[in-house]
Design brief:
Elements (H helix, E strand, L loop, with lengths): L5 E5 L3 H4 L4 E17 L8 E5 L9 E22 L3 H8 L3 E5 L4 E2 L4 E7 L1 H12 L3 E4 H12 L3 H10 L7 E2 L1 E5 L5
């Protein structure tokens, strides 16, 4: 029996990090800054950030891109092929998000298409951090993601630039520190 092909719709850093993709558009959702992680908290198997200038660990919330319902929107991205074994790994990486089926809204869809949409906890962290002036964006995250969309051409880059406008979010030079599992 043949398995149905599965894809992840990459609209943020997954577009830079996952390979073997094809360009696609997602109707009815718009990209924007929607979730954050608390840089003060160690989560085994996750990450935190240090200031590039002095190596200190700032007490901030680091923001990441998200998808929001918007019937008038169309978001450029990539459909990245995945198999059943890869999905739990990506689910773990994308712990601030919920995986949802967006197959009917993606063009072209060559199989089942999943997207990672901000979960209530991650979105609440960003909302709280913005209200307190403690939300930032990592320059490396922003530049790596921007480069992935620049490689797709002018329309995808223009869509990214418009939808990833920073608003009140400052961009900081941060180094990512990946944490190992708990001992």
């Amino acid at each position: 029996m043949r398995q149905t092909a599965q894809y992840v719709f990459a609209y943020g850093s997954l577009a830079a990090d996952l390979r073997g993709s094809h360009p696609a558009q997602l109707r009815g959702r718009r990209r924007g800054w929607g979730v954050a992680m608390d840089n003060r908290v160690n989560v085994p198997g996750y990450k935190h950030y240090r200031l590039r200038s002095d190596g200190s660990r700032p007490a901030v919330f680091v923001a990441f891109l998200d998808l929001f319902d918007d019937p008038a929107a169309c978001t450029h991205g990539l459909c990245v092929p995945v198999d059943g074994a890869q999905l739990p790994v990506i689910d773990h990486r994308e712990r601030n998000y919920e995986r949802v089926d967006v197959t009917g809204a993606v063009s072209p869809a060559r199989g089942i298409v999943w997207a990672y949409v901000g979960g209530a906890t991650g979105r609440g962290r960003l909302e709280h951090a913005r209200a307190g002036g403690a939300a930032v964006v990592s320059r490396d995250y922003l530049e790596r993601t921007r480069a992935a969309f620049a490689a797709l051409g002018p329309a995808a880059l223009a869509d990214f630039e418009r939808s990833a406008a920073l608003g009140d979010l400052p961009v900081w030079d941060l180094d990512r520190v990946d944490l190992g599992p708990a001992s």
